[in-house]
Amino acid sequence: MSKFPKDFLWGGAVAANQCEGAYNVDGKGWSVQDLLPKGIAGERKGIITEEPTMDNLKLEGIDFYHRYKEDIRLFAEMGFKVFRTSIAWSRIFPEGDEVEPNEKGLQFYDDLFDECLKYGIQPLVTLSHYETPYGLAKKYDGWRSRKLIDCYLHYCRTVFTRYKDKVKYWLTFNEINSLIHAPFTSGGILTPAGELTEEDLYQAIHHELVASALATKAAHEIIPDVKVGCMILGVTIYPLTPNPDDVIKTMLHDRDTLLFADIHARGKYPTYIKNYFAEHDIHIQMEPEDERILAENTVDFISFSYYSSICDAKNPNGAKETGGNLSRGYVNPYVKATDWGWQIDPQGLRYTLNKLYDRYQLPLFIVENGLGAVDEPVQGADGEWTVEDDYRIAYLNAHLVEAEKAIADGVELLGYTSWGCIDLVSASTAEMRKRYGYIYVDRNDDGTGTLNRYKKKSFYWYKQVIETNGESLDRE
Ligand code: BGP
């Protein structure tokens, strides 16, 4: 009965900066995350420190750097086929623009990938997950400078060459469309957001898009059987009402997201953005070869994060505002929301999958989805700590059922990696108490805790889902 293909890639996702900790160990340089103690929300308020401060929970993370063997063993116990993580760029090139890589950083990921492969788990690696080396932020104002393309490419070629036999799935930039909303987090741009023009932002975006295409090219040259994907923040937007004004507003808003998939999948700037640039007097500096680079190096698949949907309206008429990490819109009266106000909309996932597949006919990969919630650890009958996280199971189950429907609709879906498969520090607020994991990590917002790991109820639930290739999902 299950519609999931036989070789469906079940797994989980994390990012180096949210779990590894060890922020200054074995030659690692600072990344922009080390200077963001309050996360993306802090960036909005201008909280960017000049050096790491110990109230930044990411500095220790969940100490994945030293405990990854235990964690991967637990992932293997759940039956993971794939594990998405990122390489912390500043472990490999501490300042970002060195010629020679840091061998200890390279060795760490060798060991990590070997550990995954030992259990038959494929690594799916994000090259840049909100962790541009701070050196590049300081020296070049991050991705505003074209120089970053060379630094990124040198880093990509280094890790492609090193891990070519171990890693076959790569993502170029996490949520590449986020640069417009969080220039420091996403693009290492130190100039305060308020001082940046739209032209500055689109210029930085252009640099990332060219870099993404060149990385795709390099991966195809260096790694046999490689698959390279872009990664989009998958905001689903509905018109708040059937008023055609709202429908058109929604269509235009949607392009903030689709633009990035359009360029990655079709290899060129769409007419609508060229017209927008002309109307707004935005001039992007492009080198003569850029158009060819984009055209010749489109991605093999499209990956995206999906947590929630929002509504948009021309005249909201008092509708309440809402949003996720980076998206802003209006409350949908037909759906509920998480404790952090993210609207819960499993059908939006089926809708998004169909929309992307209809538009591009490229394989899709859900690389983030999950419920951030406060968990209460309790002691089970055997004395072991656990969490009865039925709310998380309900969320994940409902989304997987909708993903399955999308597969039945005809969507080619490569896999599903739920976000924060082990509890980690949140990106938006740098909290520990917003938990996503199947595995509970004993660490609190005040920095206390043993860092011990405990299996939640969802651990056993997901294990069964994977074991039965989705057959065990509750389709009621
Ligand atoms: C995405 C980021 C992730 C992750 C997730 C959940 O935008 O790619 O890094 O953190 O959101 O967000 P949060 O951690 O803020 O709950």
Structural commentary:
This protein has 15 helices and 18 strands. The chain has helices at 16-19, 39-44, 64-78, 89-92, 103-118, 134-140, 147-162, 183-187, 198-222, 244-266, 271-279, 290-296, 346-360, 390-409, 457-467, and strands at residues 9-13, 82-86, 122-126, 169-171, 227-233, 236-239, 301-305, 309-312, 321-323, 328-330, 336-337, 343-344, 364-368, 378-379, 385-386, 413-419, 439-441, 453-455. Helix 3 (64-78) packs parallel to helix 5 (103-118) and helix 7 runs parallel beside helix 9 (198-222). The chain has one domain (9-467): Glycosidases (TIM Barrel). With 476 residues, it is α/β, with parallel strands linked by helices. It starts with 8 loop residues before the first strand and ends in a 9-residue tail after the last helix. The model has no long low-confidence stretch (mean pLDDT 97). The radius of gyration is 21 Å and the shape is globular. The strands form six sheets. Strands 1-2-3-4-5-7-13-16 form an eight-stranded parallel barrel, surrounded by five helices. It has a two-stranded parallel ribbon with strand order 6-8. A two-stranded antiparallel sheet has the order 9-10. Bound molecules: 6-O-phosphono-beta-D-galactopyranose.
